């Protein structure tokens, strides 16, 4: 894999000629449209096929995959245009493999809400080990608050991604409430009811495990007891458990978001954990990268001292933020943007994309039609490569994307270049 940074005067045609790949391949791997304007500083993923296949009459995805001794999913990963439209045309050129060796196998998870665009979902699922559907809440008595998850579960299995159920502190009003969760932890009857309902739902709907996502919890002991109870019961039924953890850098880190997330104790109980290594840059905070690599690394370095590396999933953000300037604390509010959308904004305003070598993240400034200056921090192929590199550097189990709701084709190209995606089904 090559990541090419666009220079003044370059076009897709000139970049394709430079690396002797087709323009169509660049368009596909970077999610670009024919005639797309490139932005100076934009990262372009270049995957160079070393084995290609020209589709013959009557051939299918299955027959081509079998002919080359690869899985159908692998063929789709290498040719993502087939994921949502698997009709083959005689003479079509498919990539069977690319130059360069993959680092190793890894487990990948992605989070999605039930209202996700189906095309975006299906594309992502080809690269996922598991799909975690957000998310179930519960009543004061332990009854589940249902969600429309069955269409996503069906889609997940169709692309060999295993669905994970998620439970969080959502109350009957649809709001997140740590008080609501803490009342549950202190009520053994409601807790038992909830666990039974979770197990029944998992059997009925085909979930393989549970993701526990409780944040800003004050009562650490009762929370850890709850995790232990849930995990013991689910293990008896053959299910797995993942727990989401705030991004800590020490056991004594101060703050409500951190205090109940005991890395060592929770890491011993759960099958896997997700380190939520994002939101340094956030809606109400000052402009900065969402997941600066130097800060992410600090969390990982602490995490591996407390938790078995074979249990750790590294959190990766699939979004950025657009801030109006100047930033005024208590007043300013950033707007969330997709990573592909961010590049579109840069193109619209003829911005120059820059790259922070410490945060390993791209950003740019622009001035809108009202004369207001903005700064946008987002993710691109370079920042994703750097984050995914930590998975191999620290020998982690894999990574988890928060979230899959927005298009980011270049991300899948980078991921597919670096890792073989381990599937559970």
UniProtKB/TrEMBL annotation:
Pfam families: Glyco_hydro_18, LysM. One of its GO terms (molecular function) is chitin binding. Residues 106-425 form the GH18 domain. Residues 2-46, 51-96 form the LysM domain. Keywords: Glycosidase, Hydrolase. The keyword Hydrolase applies. The keyword Kinase does not apply. InterPro entries: CFLE_GH18, Chitinase_II/V-like_cat, Chitinase_insertion_sf, GH, Glyco_hydro18_cat, LysM, LysM_dom_sf. GO terms for biological process: carbohydrate metabolic process. This is LysM peptidoglycan-binding domain-containing protein.
